[in-house]
UniProtKB/TrEMBL annotation, chain A:
Superkingdom in the source lineage: Bacteria
Segments traversing the membrane: 21-48, 168-192, 266-289
Keyword Cell inner membrane in annotation: yes
Full protein name: Cell division protein FtsX
TrEMBL record, chain B:
Keywords, ordered alphabetically: ATP-binding, Cell cycle, Cell division, Cell membrane, Membrane, Nucleotide-binding
Official protein name in the record: Cell division ATP-binding protein FtsE
Function: Part of the ABC transporter FtsEX involved in cellular division.
PANTHER family: CELL DIVISION ATP-BINDING PROTEIN FTSE, IMPORT ATP-BINDING PROTEIN
Family: Belongs to the ABC transporter superfamily.
Encoding gene per record: ftsE
GO molecular function, one term: ATP binding
Membrane topology: Peripheral membrane protein
Keyword Cell division attached: yes
UniProt source species: Veillonella tobetsuensis
PROSITE patterns tied to this protein: ABC_TRANSPORTER_1 (PS00211), ABC_TRANSPORTER_2 (PS50893)
Main localization (coarse): membrane
A cellular component annotation (GO) from this entry: plasma membrane
Length: 295, 228
């Protein structure tokens, strides 16, 4: 394509955006709003994923031992546990250590410990972590059959619940994204339809004098692209501002909740939203052209 | 050369537009197509520009088989045809020169060439002094001359005109058909749809008469046709 022709296409696209000012504004706002919601959603999903992954890595299996075992017996259990494949780390926690950690966790509510009357009800235990956290369930079952093991405990229930929730959010997100994309496509194709209608005489003349189909289409496709791009840029700025605000708020009040740092993750988000905006714009304009311009 | 071989066309609403039409129009001819409304004149016109397709038969325009061509070739076909309408179809917000130049811009002609060609056709249709006027400032006859200029600026081999004098008074009509004659003298084939009998007599060219989608007569010249 010649640069002169490209210039002509852009000129025509901008001209018609100006001519249908209100519709242009409506399209850009719709794209911006849709992509903003999409962006916020993506931020949420990415953080939930991140949280799920970090929790997954923290999955521990606590193996509580029966009271009154001899050191030899305790070590025998330890040897058996060590033989488990896929074991990442093994740690022995004795009664006293467990009590110490418990006290630390209680903080200023030490009276609860005092109520025990100097008796330490906490058992000796082994704490296991795994290369592959999904194995924890099977391992827990196996370990409970070992002699000298009282019970096993792991946070698998919570983890499974969490994965279920993220799954729902992800599916819900896809559905929502679908709806938003459809609404955006509808609005953009309507805008382009108006433009096509406003220019139908020119189009007829272009057809009669032998302009190629693409020569006629390009200005509309560019218009759709510009609508999508402008909307996406607005959305990106808003999502950026929003995420920045949330990061600040959370780090102030919910410091234990680790948010994914804004960069470099935000660059990917920008790519997604701008790419999405442009694609939606192009598809939107192509749809209305197909209907309204048999060239 | 333009050929219609056994062309038939029935529209979706059941009306027969053309019924087994056979016609040959040689290069450089000036042909008038007459007939009442609904006789099939416009369909003939639209078949040439590939706006409608026949149900059967073949339409040939020079090297193009219009009834059997790739969509991508349609622009090439249309560049061979100059088209003039009854209602001029000028772009109201473009000047006379811009309206004519538009036909060249959209086929990506070089700016310098556009300038030269536009100046040349403006001179040919006698509107050099109105180059910068808007269509609304022109008379009907002048507007039609702009439309003719636009149709021929790309040097088409065939000029087709659908009732080009339909909106014009008798004197202006004569000016327009004189312009067509002038263009025809350069070797351009001219096909003109009309039911203005004065024009038919005045031009005294080959007349093809259509009725109910059939060729009723194709053996007379303007004056004898009018007497018959």
């Amino acid at each position: 394509m010649k640069p002169r022709t490209m210039k002509y296409f852009f000129k025509e696209a901008l001209k018609s955006m100006r001519r249908n000012g209100l519709m242009t504004l409506a399209s850009i706002s719709t794209v911006a709003l849709s992509l903003f919601m999409l962006g916020v959603f993506l931020c949420g999903v990415i953080n939930l994923n991140n949280m799920a992954a970090s929790l997954e890595n923290q999955v521990q299996l606590s193996v509580y031992l029966k009271d009154g075992l001899t050191t030899d017996q305790i070590m025998a259990v330890g040897r058996q546990v060590k033989a488990i494949p896929n074991l990442k780390h093994l740690e022995f926690v004795n009664k006293e250590q467990a009590m110490k950690e418990f006290k630390e966790r209680l903080g200023d509510q030490q009276q609860l410990v005092n109520a025990l009357g100097g008796i330490n009800p906490l058992p000796n235990s082994y704490v296991l972590t795994f290369e592959n956290p999904e194995d924890v369930k099977a391992t827990a079952k196996l370990v409970s059959t070992f002699q000298g093991v009282e019970s096993t405990h792991y946070g698998q229930d919570i983890i499974e619940e969490l994965f279920r929730v993220t799954q729902i959010i992800r599916i819900g997100g896809i559905v929502l994204i679908g709806f938003l994309a459809a609404a955006t496509l509808f609005i953009i194709s309507n805008t382009i339809r108006l433009t096509v209608f406003a220019r139908r005489k020119e189009i007829a003349i272009m057809k009669y004098v032998g302009a190629t189909n693409w020569f006629i289409r390009w200005p509309f496709v560019i218009e759709g692209m510009l609508l999508g791009l402008t909307g996406a840029i607005i959305a990106v700025l808003c999502v950026g501002e929003f995420y920045h605000f949330i990061t600040m708020e959370v780090s102030d009040s919910l410091a234990f909740f680790p948010l994914v740092p804004m960069f470099p993750f935000f660059y990917q988000l920008v790519g997604c939203l701008i790419g999405g905006g442009i694609i939606v714009g192009i598809i939107g304009s192509t749809i209305s052209l197909k209907q309204y311009m048999k060239v | 050369m333009i050929e219609f071989k056994n062309v038939s066309k029935v529209y979706d609403n059941g009306s027969t537009a053309l019924d087994n039409v056979c016609l040959t129009i040689n290069d450089g001819e000036f042909v008038l197509i007459c007939g009442h409304s609904g006789a099939g004149k416009s369909t003939l016109f639209k078949l040439l520009t590939h706006e409608v397709m026949p149900d059967s038969g073949t339409v040939i325009v020079d090297e193009f088989d219009v009834t059997n061509m790739k969509r991508s070739k349609i622009p090439k076909l249309r560049r061979k045809l100059g088209v003039v309408f009854q209602d001029f179809r000028l772009l109201p917000n473009k000047s006379v020169a811009e309206n004519i130049a538009f036909a060249l811009e959209v086929i990506e002609e070089k700016p310098q060439v556009i300038k030269e060609k536009v100046a040349h056709v403006l001179e040919l249709v006698g509107l050099s002094d109105k180059a910068n006027d808007l269509p609304e400032d022109l008379s009907g006859g002048e507007q039609q001359r702009v439309a003719v200029a636009r149709a021929i600026v790309n040097r088409p081999t065939v000029l087709i005109a659908d009732e080009p004098t339909g909106n014009l008074d008798p004197n202006t009509s004569k000016d327009i058909v004189d312009l067509f004659k002038h263009i025809n003298n350069f070797g351009t084939t001219v096909i003109m749809v009309t039911h203005n009998m004065d024009i038919v007599t005045y031009l005294n060219k080959r007349v093809i008469e259509l009725k109910d989608g059939r060729v009723l007569s194709d053996n007379m010249r303007g004056a004898e046709f009018n007497e018959a």
